[in-house]
Automatic annotation (TrEMBL):
Catalytic reaction(s) noted: Ca(2+)(in) = Ca(2+)(out)
Record: glycosylation sites: N142
Protein name: ATP receptor
Originating species: Macrostomum lignano
Protein's GO biological process: calcium ion transmembrane transport; response to ATP
Pfam families, per the entry: P2X_receptor
Length: 302
C-alpha cells in the first residue's frame, strides 16, 4: 500500500511559484443624468491597482464625483443633519463623513428642505448612490485575463510555466480556457470564471465579491517534465447571502491642477477581486525512500 498507492518509492517537493496577470477589455457607458456621462473605460480605468501580488481587481460598478476642490460646502444630510449652528461645533471632524465642521448649519444641496453642517472638505462631497440598472459594466463578463504562473520544484531543479511550449503567439492571442476543449489555455474569460465559480447571474455581484482561482501542479517527474501541467479550480469566497457589508469596494482619486488649484475626481469602485492560489507537489524516484519503506514493511511482516 505505502509503496504502490502512496508512492513510497519517490522523494517529494512542494511547488514554489510566482504569478502575474494581465486583463484586457473595453467598456462604453452612457449614464446621462449622472456625473459619469458618456465615456470609454479601458484597462487603466477599471483595473485598480494595475498590479497586485497574486490577485487582480475588476471594477463592476462605481460612484464618480468629478471636479472636487478643497473648500467649504454642505455635508451629506444623512451624515450631519442639523437645526442650528449649535449642532455643528467648529473643528469637530465628521468621522463617518467627509470633513471638519466650520460651525455653520446650512441648506443641503443634496436634499431640498433639509439642512446639514458645513464642512471643510473636498467639495462637492460624494453622493453615495450607485447608478440605477444593476452593474455599470455588463461587458465585464467578456473581459479576459492572461494568468502567467512560473513554478519550480527546487529539490529536482525542474521549472515549468502554465504557458505551454506548443502555444505560439497567434494561438495565445486567440485561445480561451475551456475545461473540456482547451484546458491548458492561460487566457480566461471573466464570465467563464464566474460561471465555473457558481455565479450564474452577473447582476447579483453588482456590489462586488471575491473569487479564488487555484492553479494546481500535481506532477510525477518519473515521466518527462512536459507532462507536468496545471489544472484550475474556481470558487466564490464571499458569502452572497450576507446582509451587512456586502461585496467589495474602496475609494481612490485622480488628481490634477487647474490655475494653481488642486482638483480631483473621486471614484468609489465596486468590483470583483480575483485571488490566485498556487498549490502543487512533485515526486521522483529515489532508492532511499523505497528501501526504507520496504524495510519497514518487511519488519512488520516479521
Amino acid at each position: 500500500w505505502v509503496v504502490v498507492y502512496k508512492k513510497g518509492y519517490q522523494d517529494f517537493d512542494d511547488v514554489v511559484s510566482g504569478v502575474t496577470t494581465k486583463v484586457k477589455g473595453v467598456q462604453y457607458t452612457n449614464l446621462t443624468g449622472t456625473s459619469i456621462g458618456a465615456r470609454i473605460w479601458d484597462v487603466a480605468d477599471y483595473v485598480v491597482p494595475p498590479q497586485e501580488n497574486n490577485a487582480f481587481f475588476i471594477t463592476t460598478n462605481a460612484v464618480v464625483t468629478r471636479d472636487q476642490t478643497q473648500g467649504a460646502c454642505d455635508e451629506d444630510p444623512s451624515v450631519a443633519p442639523c437645526f442650528s449652528d449649535a449642532d455643528c461645533p467648529a473643528g469637530k471632524p465628521q468621522m463617518l463623513g467627509n470633513g471638519v465642521n466650520t460651525g455653520r448649519c446650512v441648506p443641503s444641496s443634496q436634499a431640498p428642505n433639509k439642512t446639514s453642517c458645513e464642512i471643510l472638505a473636498w467639495c462637492p462631497v460624494e453622493v453615495d448612490q450607485l447608478p440605477a440598472g444593476g452593474t455599470m459594466f455588463p461587458e465585464a463578463v467578456n473581459f479576459t485575463v492572461l494568468i502567467k504562473d512560473s513554478i519550480e520544484f527546487p529539490l529536482f531543479g525542474v521549472k515549468r510555466r502554465n504557458v505551454l511550449d506548443y502555444y505560439n503567439s497567434s494561438q495565445l492571442q486567440n485561445c480561451v480556457y475551456n475545461p473540456d476543449t482547451d484546458m491548458y489555455c492561460p487566457v480566461f474569460r471573466i464570465g467563464d470564471i464566474l460561471k465555473l465559480a457558481g455565479i450564474d447571474n452577473f447582476t447579483k455581484i453588482a456590489t462586488g465579491g471575491v473569487v479564488s482561482i487555484t492553479v494546481n501542479w500535481d506532477c510525477n517527474l518519473d515521466w518527462d517534465a512536459s507532462y507536468c501541467n496545471p489544472t484550475y479550480r474556481f470558487r466564490r469566497l464571499d458569502d452572497e447571502n450576507t446582509k451587512i457589508a456586502k461585496g467589495w469596494n474602496f475609494r481612490y482619486a485622480n488628481y490634477y491642477r487647474i490655475n494653481d488649484t488642486d482638483h480631483r475626481t473621486l471614484i468609489k469602485a465596486y468590483g470583483l477581486r480575483f485571488v490566485v492560489y498556487v498549490t502543487g507537489r512533485a515526486g521522483r524516484f529515489n532508492v532511499i525512500p523505497l528501501t526504507m519503506n520496504l524495510g519497514s514493511g518487511l519488519a512488520l511482516l516479521g
